[in-house]
Design brief:
By secondary structure, the chain is mostly helical. It has one domain: Glutathione S-transferase Yfyf (Class Pi), Chain A, domain 2 (Up-down Bundle). It has three helices and no strands. α1 crosses α2. The longest helix has 16 residues.
Length: 73
């Protein structure tokens, strides 16, 4: 799993792709629930994903939805 991102910005190299949406979501989920060892390769990759503008917009929408419904996030 680590070899998919080791030494790369994104799964396919320098360009973000759908592979990062799928793989990145999985890595982030597994880190969040302590199902994956928090190696620097994984945590740095997950942080890069979180800093993408589209991800920040999606998080804002999800946070608003959760807040409106009294759900913790």
């Amino acid at each position: 799993m680590k070899s998919a991102i080791d030494g790369r910005q994104w799964v396919l190299g320098e360009q973000f792709s759908m592979a990062d949406v799928i793989f990145g979501g999985t890595v982030s989920y597994m880190l969040r629930f302590k199902m994956l060892e928090p190696l620097p390769e994984f945590t740095n990759y997950s942080e890069r994903l979180e800093h993408r503008p589209a991800r920040q917009r999606a998080n804002a929408i999800n946070d608003k939805f959760a807040e409106e419904r009294g759900l913790g996030r």
